[in-house]
Amino acid sequence: MSKVAIITDSTSDIPEDLVKKLDIKVIPLSVIFDKEIFLDDGKEITIGEFYKKIRSSEKLPTTTQPTPKDFIEVYTDILKKSESIISIHISKKMSGTINSVELAKKEMPGRDIEIVDSGYVSMALGFLVLKAAQLAQEGKSKEEILKEVYDLKPKIKVLFVPSTLEYLKKGGRIGKAKGLIASLLEIKPILTLHDGEVSQFKTARRWNQAKTELINSMKTMIKNPQNLVVSVGDSDAKEDATEMYERIKETFNPKKILRVDIGAVVGTHLGPGGLCIIFYEE
After folding, report:
1. Long-range CB contacts (< 8 A, 24+ apart) of 239-243?
2. Cα torsion at 83, 42, 258, 142 (round to 10°)?
3. What confidence score (pLDDT) does residue 176 get?
4. Of 11, 147, 157, 215, which is most buried, counting CB atoms within 10 Å of its CB?
5. What pLDDT sits at residue 149?
6. How many other CB atoms are there within 10 angstroms of residue 255's CB atom?
7. What's the whole-model pTM score?
């Protein structure tokens, strides 16, 4: 294990092979269907099972963050092998996870734990964690890693299209896009993250138009496609995500492109059938 351990939570949606390769510790949030509680670890309920359940459930699930005790247990174990911890998490405006982390740190005075509020979720958070973990494996210091993470943060762009606003609205994660609620049902909103919460980016009339608008928006935002790192995520919209993956590859020929499954906690708020494109230029 590296001198600096990198910890995140399950809303980062980082593919499991990269979690293992880069020795990232992922602490799961939980999703609650009525009285059934499942850890968002892909094991207690698989992603496929989750989307099948949410589509058939009359009552929308809720989510809950890990407790301070959960973090204390993980931190205590990791600090037996590592000198310090960088703990990077979902936006404080979207979840109480950072609150649990801060309470855990208070209970561990004198331990070298650095908390980072990513201001993001899903692979926008994930890209920060991957950068930190790569640098940790290279033997970089805590200070060097933090500088790179904070340098990367403003470069990350997030565009996502829910199939419906129902889940964001009912989950209380609609943020600054609440003005869209009264919009015509035909409108497909393209949303982004701004100041740590959901915000309106553009609107399209139909689903296929929204997908094209995603590509067109990327064209205006990307200066050097050869340096482009992209994540194409979906909440049980495999065909659409595969189509977007191929269109992005053909249009931009990015340096790196990942296909990502959006997990249960993020999927609870985005709802099934959504697409999420997250990218930055190295």
Report:
1. 240/207, 240/211, 240/275, 241/275, 243/211
2. -10
3. 45
4. 11
5. 98
6. 14
7. 0.93
